[in-house]
Amino acid sequence: MPGVAERLEAKHSGATWLAARKIEYDVNADPVEVCFQRGWSDGLPVTPPTDERVIAMLKGTTRKPDEIIGKIPPNLADCTIEKVAINAVMAGCRPEYMPVLLAAIEAALEPVFTLHGVLATTYFSSPVIIVNGPIAKRIGMNSGMNALGQGNRANATIGRALNLIVRNVGGGRPGEADRSTLGAPSKFTLCFAEDETDSAWQPLAQARGIRPGDSAVTLFQGHGPEAFVDQKSRTPEALTKSFALSLVKIGHPKLVQSARAIVVLSPEHYAIYREAGWNRQKIERALYEATIRPGAELVAGADGVGEGIPASRAAEQVPKFYDDSLMVVRAGGAAGLFSAILPGWLAGRNRTELQPVTKEIQA
User: Fold this and answer.
1) Rounded-to-integer distance, Cα 168 and Cα 200, Å
2) Which of 107, 166, 194, 199 could make a disulfide contact with 359, Cβ separation 3.0–4.6 Å?
3) N-to-C CA span, the chain
4) Nearest residue to 250 via CA among 160, 355, 326, 344
5) What is the number of structural domains in the chain?
6) How buried is 315 (Cβ within 10 angstroms: 0-12 exposed, 13-18 middle, 19+ buried)?
7) What domain range is 234 assigned to?
8) Confidence band, pLDDT 50/70/90 cuts, at residue 20
């Protein structure tokens, strides 16, 4: 709930400086039901964005409420910081989440993220948010047990707020611009922090050019997670081959160089690599090489399966991915030889036009 200061400010100033259109409703109406009726929800209840709550949310950033952060597809509607705050309230965010959410929006609006395409595709994809740096701990994000699941407010609401902004500001609603054949739970939210407890590990944001000690978000066009289980491999070579068996199935075993992927390494699987001295770069390179297969197995029609690559590539050794299409992050609980794969949008075949985006988080 907003504090006394926000309630007094809203009462005595009339919050006249708030620019968003006010919605009047019957005093006896349930404001939560009003939000449902007006289509502002992703299907779950939202917190009504009262003046007091929006004022409190705006105190989570030093940026001016009327600043336009960008144009949100598909309608390319101007999105102000105030509108971000309104949707952050509805999603259940706390004010201190605002810097992370704002960085996520800026990353999503980079042309190479192709937010309009991620929304309008018939595939499963949605924005996946990975947070690195001190801010993740400061706002209480989960990088450990159940990091990809429910139960953590910051993880759940930051990702939800981004998707609500696309819906409520940009007009991206299922059955309209959102043409996903089946969708995925990640269209509600998929946001987590990377486990940075091992100083020998290079966090994802640093691998992507962010300075050590700074906080950042990385946005990926994907969905998931898909389970990976290997409770018997004890060497990095064996574990890598095992991961490859799951990675080659993304989309379809015969589809190649069409999607990126994130491997979410659990602590027990990571320990196998760490004890052998393997760093991020070595793991990612080994996974790439382990997913190279004979073209003869992948051509259309092989084994009676219509899907596949052209017959002209039958003599090649064909990689499943491009050499920069795999990213590894660390997360998860201490027990369990289970990791996860977050598959990317199949439009990843447009390698230079579709890329993950990393943005530094500003105060």
Assistant:
1) 42
2) 107
3) 23
4) 344
5) 1
6) exposed
7) 226-343
8) confident
